[in-house]
Amino acid sequence: MGKPVISIRDVFRVYKTGIIEFVALRGVSLEINEGEMVAIMGASGSGKSTLMNILGLLDRPTRGEYVLGGRSVSALSRENQTKLRSEFIGFIFQQFHLLPRTPAIDNIELPLLYRLDISGRERHKMSRIALDRVGLKGRERSHPTQLSGGQQQRVAIARALVTNPPLLLADEPTGNLDTRTGLEILALFQEIHREGRTVVMVTHEADVAACCERIIVLRDGKVLSDAPVGKRLNAAEELSKLPPLEVQMAEVAQ
Ligand SMILES: Nc1ncnc2c1ncn2[C@@H]1O[C@H](COP(=O)(O)OP(=O)(O)OP(=O)(O)O)[C@@H](O)[C@H]1O
Ligand SMILES: [Mg+2]
Question: Closest residue (by CA) to atom 26 of ligand 1?
């Protein structure tokens, strides 16, 4: 086992809307070690996105401790949080969150624009490497509106990878994709994980979670269970078991 990348202790998140308070996380404690691939599951409203946003430094706990990469981040200033996030974390959203009328390559370069230590030339080079890495060579000038859902998710993954972060967080990365495209994206995540990165992803689907090594289930803002995956799925292998695309098309045509 590697050392912990993520360590949270007794984390609460209370949302306040007017005089109404809602406790979305009620005392979550967990550790995720370097190089793990972890799924977070749970019913809608159980607190998965709330937890991911805190882990990704997009939000703060109302109470509780967060240690990221050995460093307490609960009390960091916003500026330092942003800086740490840009160096340490790649975040991928279900809805891709791309700029629709901006070429793929410029979308990918975005996180590097905060990095004043990197020259423009180097930024272009890094963006191109990330674009190639996710299999989108030749599509650098395409706008997200001209790409399929799977290709848009690849752009979002390239954008998350461009800073070369050790930790990748993804909130329902395959939620908007069909089975085949979802498996392709999962195969890419498994490759990225094999390169030595820590990957944490939220999913509703048991098959997607089975591609990870460990499954944490939330219920009503608490950890219900946390267990290793018994029989791990290999997404590339599952993909090869699907009927060829032409057969599927022919079935649709009939
Ligand atoms: N900004 C907010 N203000 C008030 N309540 C919120 C806010 N964001 C989330 N909540 C509430 O907190 C609870 C947990 O929300 P969260 O988005 O973390 O759930 P989730 O597990 O990601 O659900 P889903 O599977 O539908 O994405 C829900 O009851 C939700 O209504
Ligand atoms: Mg959610």
Answer: 44
Does ligand 1 have an atom closer than 6 angstroms to the CB of 190?
Answer: no
Whether 17 is in the pocket of ligand 1, judged by its Cβ within 6 Å, is yes
| Buried/exposed code over 151-171 (b: 16+ C-beta within 10 A; e: otherwise) | bbbbbbbbbbbbbebebbbbb
- With left for phi above 0 and alpha for psi between -120 and 50, is residue 120 left, alpha or beta? alpha
CATH classification at residue 94 = 3.40.50.300
Digit-by-digit pLDDT tens for the chain (254 residues) are 579 999 999 999 999 999 999 999 999 999 999 999 999 999 999 999 999 999 999 999 999 999 999 999 988 888 899 889 988 999 998 888 999 999 999 999 999 987 889 999 999 999 999 999 999 999 999 999 999 999 999 999 999 999 999 999 999 999 988 999 999 999 999 999 999 999 999 999 999 999 999 999 999 999 999 999 999 999 999 999 988 877 666 666 66
- Please count the structural domains in the chain: 1
Q: Whose CA is nearest to atom 12 of ligand 1?
A: 24
Domain of residue 41, residue span: 4-253
